[in-house]
Amino acid sequence: MAYDRDLEFVYRSPTKLIFRENAVKDAGIEVEELGCSRALIVTDKGIVDAGLVEPVEKALGKRHAGTYDKCIQDSGYDVVNKATEFARDKGADALISVGGGSVIDTAKGMAILLKEGGKLEDYEGVQMLSRPQTPHVVIPTTAGTGSEVTPSAVIKNRDRNIKMLIHDSHIMPNTAILDPVMTQGLPPMLTATTGMDVMTHAIEAIHAIIAEPIADYVAFGAIRLVVEYLPRCVENGDDLFARGQQQIAATAGGMAFANSQINIVHSLAHSAGGIFGVPHGLANSILLPHVILFILSDCADRYVLVGEALGVYEKGMTGMEAGEAAANAIWEFTKKLGIPQRLRDAGVPEDGLESIADNALNDGVLPFSPKLIVDPEEVLQVYQNAW
């Protein structure tokens, strides 16, 4: 793990983690430990219908202030504002998000507005807050986003049709309850694409311009876990051991990129998702190998480590060779998982590529790319290759 610069870093990971089957039974205990008495559950209708909210409500008992179940995919400011009003009416002093990335990010936005007031737009950007926000416990129902341990929330501005980033250490959740049972009913394709979100987080953490050694080790482990256990999760959703290992991978990937940062793959995926509604994990899965080949000459030394994690590095390989092997391995891996390989298969029209290329250059995580990108034509070429 060589670094071609004077190394300085800060590694932050303050979220308490609880991992075991049926750990949701601890939800009330964790709320009490945070000094709170009225916890609002934030979720979506599908999670409620799947029966995943009821055990959390039961665990909270008298501390259950209510349940807001109107979160949607690619949550927007409008959803956060309505949910915050609901939470205020219920007198909530804590939030419990039960769901995937959109639900968790909705709760992060709510945590800000409940504490600070105003409009969510006021807090767009990096480190805009000066104090801890409303206590937040996360119970993930997917194993992908890692949002349970990150300082970031991506929330859609529907007026501008783009995804906006709030990145602030004060919105890192207080507690994450990792319960494999909560991911047991996740359909195979959603399992596969959210799993590739983990893979993308870990690889981007390794090749990021501010990569650092602790995050490297954590990301390396996340990749190894995904390679071994994601296929098992897709093949048999009731394999709770594999589900648990994939949850650990997702959280590890989140810890890695919370410190080293996601970058160019996510910039391109955010744009495709913001304009054409491509699900985030699917966009990352399609774009990841194309981006690797695009940036490889600028970060080839980092791809020895990625190649080792993927199990494709052979002694004597150069970084360029390791990166090419990594890209090919990812293509083969996602094909076997049954994930679509092209943006056209994800609903992106060819005549829309220029618009998402222009938009991608404005994404908040692009500056952490190992390759300096200022020309939308370069990004357009990546999209065209992926189309």
Short description:
The chain is of the alpha/beta class and 387 residues long. The protein is built from 14 helices and 9 strands.
Question: How would you describe this structure to a colleague?
Answer:
- The structure is a single chain.
- This protein is α/β, with parallel strands linked by helices and 387 residues long.
- Helices cover 49% and strands 11% of the residues.
- The chain contains 14 helices and nine strands.
- A hairpin with a 4-residue loop joins strand 7 and strand 8.
- Helix 6 (188-207) packs parallel to helix 8, helix 6 runs parallel beside helix 10 and helix 13 packs across helix 14 (376-386).
- The longest helix has 23 residues, at 213-235.
- It is globular.
- The two termini are 34 Å apart.
- The model has no long low-confidence stretch (mean pLDDT 93).
- CATH topology-level name of the largest domain: Dehydroquinate synthase-like, alpha domain
Broad CATH class of the largest domain: Mainly Alpha
Fraction in helix:
40-55%
CA(first)-CA(last) distance = 34 Å
What is the strand content? Answer: 5-15%
What's the number of domains? 2
Cα shape: globular
The CATH architecture of the largest domain can be given as Up-down Bundle
Unreliable segments of 5+ consecutive residues: none
How many β-strands, per DSSP? 9
How are helices and strands ordered from N to C?
A: EHEHHEHEHEEEEEHHHHHHHHH
Q: What is the structural class?
A: alpha/beta
> Can you tell me the CATH superfamily of the largest domain?
Dehydroquinate synthase-like - alpha domain
Radius of gyration: 20 Å
